[in-house]
Fold this protein.
Amino acid sequence: MIGVSLVIISGIVVAINANRVNNPIKKFEAWIRRTQPNVYSSWFYRYIIKPIFRTIVVMVAFSIAYCIVIFCIVFGIIFLILYGIDKSMNKEEKVGRIDDNGNIYMKKR
């Protein structure tokens, strides 16, 4: 069943890619490209739109990079503060012991 479907699919692909089908389509695409004006070669695009667009893209990229750096710095500081608090709270001496059954025995101070 799979072999038959592969033969059918490959036959369809060959029929679609045949020169008698592709040539009129390629000619039509070429005609459309010739009739459309090339926007990117105009002076308005080259001297007005493109510099403004580049400036906006650069500003957005720097803004995103700045936000990422600030985000990392803020969370780094928060991490260091919380780490310091955790270390200072866990400095208590161990005043007890736990036996094999899980019972906790506290020493008197």
Q: What stands out?
A: DSSP finds three helices and two strands in the chain. The CA atoms of residues 1 and 7 lie 10 Å apart. The two ends are 84 Å apart (CA to CA).
